[in-house]
Amino acid sequence: MTQCFFCSQNLREIDYKEVELLKRFISSQGKIIDPRHTGVCAKHQRRLAQAIKRARFLALLPFVKR
Q1: If you count DSSP H runs as helices and E runs as strands, how many of each does the chain have, helices first?
Q2: pLDDT 10s digits, 26-47
Q3: Which positions ≥6 away from 22 have C-beta within 8 Å?
Q4: How far apart are the C-alpha atoms of 37 and 40, rounded to whole Å?
Q5: Using CA atoms, how far apart are residues 22 and 29, in angstroms rounded to an integer?
Q6: Residue 9 and residue 44: Cα distance in Å, rounded?
Q7: 31 vs 49: CA distance, rounded Å
Q8: Which secondary-structure segment (H or E) carries 57?
Q9: In angstroms, rounded to a whole number, what is the distance separating the alpha carbons of residues 57 and 42?
């Protein structure tokens, strides 16, 4: 099993304003990618999902890509 990206980078906070980082965890259709494919631990997956949802609400990320 691979180590979590956020644990290995020693990142404490996942900021919703870091759009380029969040785009790595969104599929081509705009969905949040499953943690089994990304290798993110459960704690960071919850924080990542919250950050993506906040960025979508503030129009920093699209809800759906066409």
Answers
A1: 4, 0
A2: 999 999 999 999 999 999 999 9
A3: 16, 48, 51, 52, 55, 61
A4: 8
A5: 14
A6: 12
A7: 10
A8: helix 42-57
A9: 23
